[in-house]
Amino acid sequence: MIDYEGSLKKSFTDFGKLVIGIILSVIPIIQLFAYGFAIECSGVGRNKPSKKMPDWKNYVDYLVKGIIAVIIAFLYAIPAILVLSIGVGFAAISIMTTLVGIMPQDIMNSLMAGQLAGTQLEQFFSQNWVATLPSLVAVAPVILVGLILLLIAAYASPMAVLNYLRHKDFKKAFDFAFVFGKVFTLKYFVVWILVGLITVVLNAVLSFVPWIGSAIAFFVSSVIAWSLYGEVYREK
Fold it and tell me: What is the pLDDT along the chain (236 residues), one digit of tens a residue?
């Protein structure tokens, strides 16, 4: 059984640890310490998972976990990045070719001479944007495939990170049979959707708190997310 209540409460089990996590979450790069700590909150790799947050005692280890988690997520996203890059590149070339083909000679001459004002160029694009639609439609399937691959990467990478954490072996993050066997289950899907909703709600509510609001949302949502992911990982 997934302990939803325990995961939702975990970041509030120790006020001192919560404050440290929020402070470390203020600066983007330093966030990696807090992110690694949140991953540790999953309890994966421990003999006995706890309902409380671990101690802030091994900062280097938390930093390493945070960095490796980002690397794993990036590697999972590489197919999507490649497909999207190809799609955007083809779209840009096709659109520019189309626009150059219908561009009046006087505007072309001014453009080549570097004398074309930005407002003139904007006016030309606004008057001829319809001509770019065939190029956009042609490349739309490639962009769609890229977005689907990106969604799959975001969906699967948390379980890949936890499999690395469990075995302390980077290659285990790419044990696709295990990872996809875990993520394509109803329990994981529900947890993933719940994590997304919690993240969106916390960021929306706390965005009005100057400076510290986004840090609170980041740390609390990260602890909740990895605690829930850890619950799913341990499910047999």
Answer: 888 999 999 999 999 999 999 999 999 899 999 999 999 999 998 767 788 999 998 899 999 999 999 999 999 999 999 999 999 898 888 877 776 667 666 666 666 666 555 566 666 677 776 777 877 788 889 999 999 999 999 999 999 999 999 999 999 999 999 999 999 999 999 999 999 999 999 999 998 898 899 999 999 999 999 999 999 999 87
Give the C-alpha distances (Å, rounded to integers) separating 133 from 14, 123, 128, 137, 217.
Answer: 55, 17, 10, 6, 40
DSSP calls for 129-173: GGGGHHHHHHHHHHHHHHHHHHHHHHHHHHHHHHHHHHHT-GGGG
Q: Write the CA distances from 18 to 122, 133, 217, integer angstroms.
A: 50, 50, 12
Give buried/exposed letters for 153-169 (b at 16+ CB in 10 A, else e): bebbbbbbbbbbbbeee
Measured N-to-C along each axis, helices 133-167 and 59-102 cross at an angle, to the nearest 10 degrees, of 170
The enclosing H or E element of 191 equals helix 186-206
Contact 163, 178 (CB under 8 A): yes
What single letter denotes the amino acid at residue 22?
A: I
